Amino acid sequence: MRDYREISLWKNVTPEEWNDWHWQLSNRITDIEALSEIITLTPEEKKALNDDLLELRMAITPYYATLMDPNDVNCPIRMQAVPTSKERYTAEEDFYDPLAEDRYAPVPGFVHRYPDRGILLVTDQCSMYCRFCTRRRFAGEVDRPKSREEIQAAIDYIERTPVLRDILITGGDPLTMEDENLEWLLMSLRRIPHVEIIRIGTRVPAVMPQRITRSLVSMLRQFHPLWINVHFNHPKEITPYSTRALNMLADAGIPLGNQSVLLRGINDCPYIFKELFHKLLVNRVRPYYIYQCDLSRGISHFRTSVGKGIEIIEFLRGHTTGMAVPTFVVDAPGGGGKIPLMPNYLLAQGERRVVLRNFEGTITVYTEPEDASSHCHGCKEICMRQSMSSGGGVSELLEGSRLQLEPQVLKREERRHQWMEEKKDQSLNTSKPECPFL
Ligand SMILES: *Cc1c(COP(=O)(O)O)cnc(C)c1O
Ligand code: SF4
């Protein structure tokens, strides 16, 4: 981390200004001239910045800029913040909206994909625009929060949808909003009786920690149970500034989680993640997810194999504190949601014995009891409550309430329909329809 006073652009900036998030936000680096006063740009970077074809604008907070290595193009901080012309390449597998968020939005700005929870997109603004952003289709489009009227429509949907017990506020970055606006939003959600927990997803503690002020945390703590998930990708993002921000949030009683994105050339190494997660735990942040990089347009150069993520979990589980091991997920293209992946620990399964391996490669056997059957506990109230918002799927097969799950496109079924059509033609003059299953 560089001292900002050594950078010519900011040599006259006072500590008060530097520590003021409004100053940080309005002094973001958005053009090549300012950027070239901070780092040595390669011809490649200059080219990328010189034309306006970038889908996602550039904006870097002065704070985050001081974490960049001025001379190393492969600096993990720089690679997250400075555009390159690689972003202009669209791979065959790229999508405009890989997670089909727009398709699962019952009202603009609210994605209802899972049975009992949803995400509320309140702004398209971020303090720093991550080059690998999955929401690059709209992040930074107008660079300001939505109007209260727009957000109100989503709040109305939440209000009339009683299964929604968990609301995740995201964007953009919700913490770029002013305190009053956020307070209005949190108050509106807290007023809804079925909203049990509220979550905020934010990258602010990593890219503009000055935003975490005393007045912000004392406002936030009125809305418990409130959870915050932060977004750190590299141990270099843990600084005295971000540490202070995280401690203030934790001291306000807000449980903190972290979501990282697995990024080629930036953090695709188990040791980098181990270091990052150790540092996060020291700051009372529990690693929650590592995301496989999504199939958003123009970010294929940031993607690793899926195997890299599984390998990282292999290097963590058992080797270090269990709380330092997040879940590695692939967010299913097309809107299927997050799919967890991990190394295989189950080697074989017999009638009463499972053969398992541990992180060292030791192979053991666990013998199950003679009678391991479970019975209904007869607690009807819990059953009724929980099954109402149950998500169906494979759990319905286990429950026995469904016999099979079938793909929508099934050749076998197509054949059967054809037979039925043929039969219908033949039996037009008979009055009794035949059972289709015969
Ligand atoms: C990630 C996500 C959630 C929250 O998922 P959790 O696994 O509960 O953290 C909810 N809705 C959408 C659309 C998401 O992408
Ligand atoms: S903070 Fe999140 S939404 Fe904003 S640019 Fe980064 S990844 Fe995208």
Automatic annotation (TrEMBL):
Q: Which reaction does it catalyse?
A: L-lysine = (3S)-3,6-diaminohexanoate
A Pfam family matched in the record: Radical_SAM
In terms of Gene3D superfamilies, this protein maps to: 6.10.140.1170, 6.20.120.40, Aldolase class I (3.20.20.70)
Keywords associated with the record: 4Fe-4S, Iron, Iron-sulfur, Isomerase, Metal-binding, Pyridoxal phosphate, S-adenosyl-L-methionine
Instruction: Please give the SUPFAM superfamilies that the UniProt record associates with this protein.
Output: Radical SAM enzymes (SSF102114)
Question: Where is each Radical SAM core domain found?
Answer: 112-324
Q: Which domain of life is it from?
A: Bacteria
Q: Name its co-factor(s).
A: pyridoxal 5'-phosphate; [4Fe-4S] cluster
Bias-annotated ranges (Basic and acidic residues): 417-426
Q: What class of enzyme is it?
A: isomerase
| Region of interest (Disordered), residue spans | 417-438
Q: What is its EC number?
A: 5.4.3.2
Q: What family is this?
A: Belongs to the radical SAM superfamily. KamA family.
Q: What is this protein called?
A: L-lysine 2,3-aminomutase
Organismal lineage: Bacteria, Thermotogati, Synergistota, Synergistia, Synergistales
